[in-house]
Amino acid sequence: MKKKNTLYAYLMSSPTMLLLTVLSIFPLGFVIWYSLTDYYYLTTTKPKFIGLQNFVQIFKDEYFVQALGNTLRFTVLAVLLEVALGLAVAVLINGIQKRQKLIRTTYMLPMLLPPVTVALVWQMMFSNNYGIINNILAFFKIAPVNWLMDVHTAFYAILVIDIWQYTPFAFLLMYAALQSVPQGQYEAAAIDGANSWQQFTRITVPNILKNIVMVVLLRVIDTFRLFDKVNILTKGGPSNSTATITQYIYQYGVKMLKVGYGSAASVIMTVIVLILAFGYIQQNFKRNNAVKQ
Prior knowledge:
Elements (H helix, E strand, L loop, with lengths): L1 H34 L17 H8 L1 H33 L5 H13 L2 H11 L6 H8 L14 H25 L4 H9 L4 H29 L3 H6 L11 H11 L3 H34 L1
């Protein structure tokens, strides 16, 4: 009976596995192969195998080094701020008794908007001439700022947009985790004389720590792939101050049609993301093995 159930499970899951194989493993294999060639889309000759030359050339490119630095810096700042703000808002809304559903739903709206729409709306708000942000500065007699075209502010302008849109995502996952924290622990802590901060650090955080780690991992992976906002608002400028790895891949792999070179950059980005997520994935495997045993 056990063998029949196992066979049935494999048969039922085989269409999904086949689809995932076709849509994921085959493209990945082609990207890895093309990264080792000089494949140029417009050429009529077959791609020539060149080994690791693309990778060596990429790491010698100052544009790539700057794009990688910008991506890492953006990922660290965005994830830290989004998780911190999301946790703070989740704890705050969880403690509200009246109209909690309305406040929760309203706060989720930015996450539901398409990234292109968000970028265009904020582009108008950051406008040097008629943007609402500069109008507010003018009300306080402060000179207008060219937010998206100034090398000192463009990076942080995009950072603010990303935090505004995706903090609700961190809030949603951590708010859901807060619902499972036993209220009896808070009551016992209150009887023992623990204040709000002690309850937060010794009860709330330990109970939802796994969820916080999961949010960090998901946001790291997603933030590392930042492209749409940069491409719409700054196209990597000014002076490559907002250039990202995805922008670099788009520049060479799509616009310049250097498929081999762009594929190599894609492989590098994938490896970096896997390294960042390795610890969490390893812990999950250990936890699953422990449960099976």
